[in-house]
Amino acid sequence: MNLILHVWRQKNAKDPGRMVRYEARNISAHMSFLEMLDVVNEELIARGEEPIAFDHDCREGICGMCGFMINGVAHGPERGTTVCQLHMRHFKDGDELYIEPWRSRAFPVIKDLVVDRSAFDRIIAAGGYISVRTGSAPDANAIPVPKENAELAMDAAACIACGACVAQCPNGSAALFTGAKIAHLGLLPQGQPERDRRAVAMVVQMTKEGFGHCTNIGECEAVCPKEIKLDVIARMHRDYLHAAWTGRQKPGFREDQPAEEPMAGNRR
Amino acid sequence: MELNSKVPDVPIEQAWDRRKFEMKLVNPANKRKYNIIVVGSGLAGASAAATLGELGYNVQCFCYQDSPRRAHSIAAQGGINAAKNYQNDGDSVFRLFYDTVKGGDFRAREYNVYRLAQLSLNIIDQCVAQGVPFAREYGGLLENRSFGGAQVSRTFYARGQTGQQLLLGAYQALQRQVAAGQVKMYARHEMLDLVVIDGRARGIVTRDLITGRIESYAADLVILATGGYGNVYYLSTNAKGCNATAIWRAYKRGALFANPCFTQIHPTCIPVTGEYQSKLTLMSESLRNDGRIWVPKRKGDTRPPDEIPEDERDYFLERKYPAFGNLVPRDVASRNAKAVCDEGRGVGPGGYGVYLDFRDAIKRLGREVIEERYGNLFDMYERITGEDPYRVPMRIYPASHYTMGGLWVDYNLMSTIPGLFVAGEANFSDHGANRLGASALMQGLADGYFILPYTVGDYLASNKLEKVDTTHPAFRSAEAEVACNIKRLLDVRGSRSVDSFHRELGKLVWDYCGMSRTAEGLKYALKKIPELREQYWREVRVPGESEEFNQSLEKAGRVADFFELAELMCLDALHRNESCGGHFREEYQTPDGEALRNDDEYCYVAAWEYRGEDNAPALHKEPLTFKYVQPAQRSYK
Amino acid sequence: MSTAAVEPRLKRTWGLYEVYIGKKLVMAGTGVVLVLYIIGHLLGNLQIYAGPEQMNQYAAFLHSQPGLLWTARIVLLAAVGAHIWSSFLLWRDKRRARPIGYVKKDDIPASYASRTMMWSGPIIAAFVVFHVLHLTTGDVGLGFQPPTAGPTGEAFYAYENVVNGFRYPAVSAAYIFAIALLTMHLYHGMWSMFQSVGISHPRYTPLLKSLAHVFSIAIAAGYISIPVYVMIRFGVK
Question: Subunits touching B (CB < 8 Å, at least 3 pairs)?
Fold first, then answer.
């Protein structure tokens, strides 16, 4: 099949960028979307032009590195699928596709379709973990976990941090990403001691990074390649409000940012 | 060169305890004065960086991806072994040790493997405490399954995403240390050289992949946890970015490279569909627990699978290996699949595929059970192929998956360059000539969480290290070399893309140094690879510049190193006149087609030393002795 | 440990409001007040079907309790103010969160109502102003009859005012349009507020969502029936 692509080209962070039209010819239905772009890039290189830069790594839908907008939908038209797993059989000859990078203040464009998602790392660093010193863990079967909770935790933990939720959200909110981690750890008995602290620290960090707010629209849920449910956002709100209510955690911004506060566990 | 494995001279059960006791400790107040570089942020790298940071060292951790959470450990599906014996089915540390040594076809160091089996217990505890949502039974306790080649259920798993969940556990521990200021994370930085000063590893040179800047980092020691080199085949189950550059540069700086020809071909991958194919997708081996592998009995049978009656199907693994059936080790399963396809009985487009059929399992257990066990794998298969495996049998074919070879390390995981430690898939240590399923995750985490934190401390406490910073001339010259190499690539300005060369190299290595090898083929490859490499340096086209985000340039450097590595692989494969594990030389097989080892002549680790561009590498041998498991012909009948 | 110390309540509350969840809490809380008012107001309005006496007496009753009336008005005004102010702040955050928009953006998965909260709100607010000027203060005219002194206190002409007003098709149309927007606003807002304060349940949330939808449509039906009834019964002007 042959396709017409309109691709966002931007040389670097300072370049204003623009849409450029390309033609993708002789595309096989068995190709993945990224393999289709590989073919386009091979042609560009042969013509002496710079290939389209896009992030990708595992190409099996788990590393979370790839992702861009295809006709205004994060990861394209197939539900529960990253662009690397999106195959060309879902398109037809003559389709015109608009390919754009994730748009968010917190995800500045590095080049073409490549964006900087380090804000996600900082949200995790703020509290998306269970503090357990290596070697100090009790026996793995010491604390039973109800199967249902383990399953729900796994549902939330499946997040691959690709950023599609932010990109699709009309408000540019990272609530699904942050909520997924808060839900994953908050559903497990091991996550209880730090539950309040985690919710507040992560929500505050998310806000500081410049993500928007959640208005429960559900576009994030619809494009999430791991089909994480909106429910995790409610869990995040609940944990945050609980922490604020009990007053053991300062709910708002602090002068001493939680991300930089050395933890007691590290002082010897 | 004398290869001293530094294995403690005590019975195997006491060895690690003894070593821990012998090792010198760093005064807690002094730990913050030491700088440690960790390259790679997969299971081994992230767990090492997190634990060392937690101990109080200053850690700098590097990865080429945009976040440490993306390392390719994340793609491991099936599970992680641990000798917990929670199933009361006769498992023990010794049995895991025994299985691993036997599975590795007696080419691994016994003491290392025993320690790995011991530490497997701690790993599960650690991961559960971190919040890894392993599968559980209704009673709330952990569930296990049996996994390729094991007759006990010792594999812990988190759906088909075990690697992801373990990596996220390590990543979260790492981010916690980043927040605490103990680890400084450098994402989108690729290591391009190792800096050795006075014979010790003292730093690295990197390229910032966003700005293209060449940078130097100095430290008291360097840990490489940069994964394997399976992408030498171009088509593999590795991530597109996986590369051998870090270990290759270490090799060129004097670290010995061990057993490069030991590569693993995974039996259950989705077959190739066309020229454009950029990677192969692995379907977890756990599928073999319930799926039955077969091909038509007749050659060139093109009927759809559901029209082929039962008596015209050849369940070749069940037929040849009645005891293990579909659960034979990976190398055996892979070779047999290749054999039936070479006979012309393969299925699917191109004829290189065999069926993996769940019809009987669905009949026996019901669709729900199969869905719960493999749902996400089935979805993935359907997404890629457009076929529904609940109705149509899957088609699978072997693909390059894991490399047992890697930098040679001693019992302390230190390479032949003092101060250069190597962990995870990047080292050669624990899997011998073949790795058992669900053991890679175990090894990565054992190295990172439980071995390096001790042995690194011992190295620091036992050696008086001069202060070194990046103004040292060794850094300047390494930077200059890196910059020169980049300029050379950009200046070729030929006509062919990097990928086209990589594809060609990959096919060559796959054909002659892949699932089965012959002396003749290897000699041919050893003639062709240098030719192709020369062509590469004459005709490659790398668009763009070095001082910018340039993915073609990244690839070009990696492929240049793969060319050299491919040659070493073939050399190693040619010298090893025996078949063992993943290394199958057609000349050396039993009458019924099994790998025929030659323990008298080849029971050693082949460690290769770089001796300059114009000289052949030198072979050093570390003899392997087996005191606890008697080498025997592997039999899975 | 100092971090475990309880913060002064005022400071804590402000900290809570700094993060969007605090603002959403205000949105939800004031939303509840406004929904309650909408229900009460509807019940009052539906008395039109009981005839002029009933309705005018009800109006007189309300006005005979100035304390109650003004408390309600002040609470309502405060709720509206807080609702609008919080939504303004949230809207500003949203604008900042995506400085560069998409060339092409598809919203398939989202309900129309959920995406239009930000403009259905202000239009409803504008209509409410008109509505108050029309039927409470009478500044719009349209045959408005102010209360007169009667034998048992002031006499109110709520019934007549409603009838006179709604006989103008333009007034009715504006009213119906505003109610339609209000319905959409409630359609999303009434389940969304539960989600915002963290109430979500695999079984009950879908139920709650359906209830919110049924309820918002019921409210709309009740309100819209009035101008329709007036125009049919009394004819248009």
Answer: A
Q: Which chains touch A (3 or more CB pairs under 8 A)?
A: B, C
Return the residue matching tokens 């981690």: A181
Higher pLDDT, B285 or A192: A192
Whether domain B12-262+404-462 has CATH 3.50.50.60: the reply is: yes
Q: What is the CATH number of the domain that holds C132?
A: 1.20.1300
Reduced 3-state DSSP string for B113-158: HHHHHHHHHHHHHHHHHCCCCCCECCCCCECCECCCCCCCCCEECC
**How remote is the C-alpha of C220 from its chain's centroid?**
11
CATH 1.10.1060.10 at A117-266, yes or no: yes
Q: Do B133 and A184 touch (CB under 8 A)?
A: yes
* Separation in Å, CA of A102 to nearest CA in chain C: 9
Tens of pLDDT, residues A69-112: 999 999 999 999 999 999 999 999 999 999 999 999 999 999 99
Q: What size, in residues, is chain B?
A: 637
Chain A interface includes C108 (CB < 8 A): yes
pLDDT of residue A222: 94
- Taking the Cβ of residue A58 and every Cβ of chain B, the question of whether any pair is shorter than 8 Å is answered with yes
Residues A104-138 pLDDT 10s: 999 999 999 999 999 999 999 999 999 999 999 99
Per-domain residue ranges for chain A? 3-111, 117-266
Please write the tens of the pLDDT for every residue from B173-219. Answer: 999 999 999 999 999 999 999 999 999 999 999 999 999 999 999 99
Q: Count CA atoms closer than 13 A to B624's CA, side-chain side.
A: 31
- Find out whether B265 and B514 touch, Cβ atoms under 8 Å: yes
User: In chain C, which ranges are continuous DSSP H helix?
Assistant: 9-18, 20-45, 52-63, 66-97, 112-115, 117-132, 158-166, 169-196, 204-234
C-proximal residues of A, 117-156, CB under 8 Å: none
pLDDT band at C10 (very low <50, low <70, confident <90, very high): low
Chain C residues with CB under 8 Å of A237 CB are 21, 24, 195-198
HSE on the CB side for C171, CA within 13 Å?
24
Inside any domain, residue C106 = yes
B303 or A265, higher pLDDT: B303
Q: For A3-111, which CATH superfamily applies? A: Beta-grasp domain (3.10.20.30)
Residue A255 binned pLDDT confidence (cut-offs 50, 70, 90):
very low
Residue A267 has pLDDT above 90, yes or no: no
Instruction: Tell me if chain B has a CB within 8 Å of the CB of A85.
Output: yes
Name C27's Cβ contacts closer than 8 Å, sequence gap at least 6: C83, C86, C87, C90, C193, C196
> Which among A61, A135, A261 is the nearest to B380, CB-wise?
A61
With a CB cutoff of 8 Å and minimum separation 6, the contacts of B436 are B81, B99, B100, B103, B104, B147, B148, B149, B150, B329, B330
Query: What's the CATH code, domain B266-399?
Result: 3.90.700.10
Query: What's the CA gap between B245 and B560, in Å, rounded?
Result: 9
**Closest Cα to residue A41, out of B502, B538, B551, B507?**
B551
- Cα B603 to the chain's mean position, in Å? 22
Amino acid letter, B262: F
For domain B473-607, the CATH architecture is Up-down Bundle (1.20)
- Looking at residue B159, its pLDDT comes to 87
Q: B383: which chain A residues are within 8 Å (Cβ-Cβ)?
A: 61, 78, 81, 85, 87
- Whether the predicted pLDDT of A48 surpasses 50: yes
Query: In this model, does residue B150 exceed pLDDT 70?
Result: yes
Is the predicted pLDDT of residue B151 greater than 90, yes or no? no
Can chain C be said to touch chain B, i.e. do they have 3 or more Cβ pairs within 8 angstroms?
no
Q: Is the ipTM of this complex over 0.85?
A: yes
Nearest CB neighbour to C20, from listed A103, A104, A213: A213
User: Is position B330 annotated as part of the catalytic site?
Assistant: yes
